[in-house]
Amino acid sequence: MQDEDRKDNEAMQNLPRGIALSWGLEKEPQRGPKRELSIRKIVDTAIQIADKDGLSAVSMNRVAASLGYTAMSLYRYIPSKEDLLLLMQDAVCDIPIPPEEKDEDWKNGMREYVQACIQILREHPWFFDIPITGEPYTPNILQIVEWGLRIMRHCPLSDHEKMSIVLLLNSYARSWGGIIRDIDKAVQAGSRSAAPSTSDIHNALKYLVTQEQFPQLYAMVKSGTYAGENESDDGSNDFEFGLERILDGIEYYLNQRQAENGK
Predict the structure, then answer these.
(1) Residue limits of the HTH tetR-type domain (predicted)?
(2) Which of 5-9, 153-157, 159-163, 226-230 tops mean pLDDT?
């Protein structure tokens, strides 16, 4: 036991600084600028800048100036910009997690889970601009992973299979979040009003896409299916269709596993 405790203590001491800060394992400086400054205030200010002007606008100098301090004052609390970005990601993932329900339907749970993940990405589109470098290690992001695993808790799957399913749904949320982000940016930039009319382009395609050259696409263009003329502007029908097919696939796999376990 003593060897295990020693190894645990060494592991805790060797944690990267940003991860240690996210878990509250390091005390904030006791001495510093006269006005109160904190890790939370620094992170919240950086998030406000990123939400307004994008991730490229976030720098220690910009955050410090917004708070009325020098960049050196911030480094006493957060040692690098990389650590700041890590803390920003974790902070925006501090979302309400639904309470556990005894007889929760896993499909409904996963629908809510994916929608919540997309909402984070939509509210903070700069999240996409931070590269994925490995598994998450910070508490709020892990709490979201915990939520996904909780939904699958009664499924007859191995730990690896459950994690893979959560990763699959996270990837789907990230993909759709990116599409929605690009649409939102286009609308905000006014590119739709400046560009040629979308309806004009769709009408032109009905002439340009011939049955001889595009035998499979032709009927879809003619009916308006290709342009999504019968769908909502945010593509929710496409999103829901894709999500339901993923859930159907997971359900089929679960049924197979249950049949195998019943033998």
Answers:
(1) 36-96
(2) 159-163
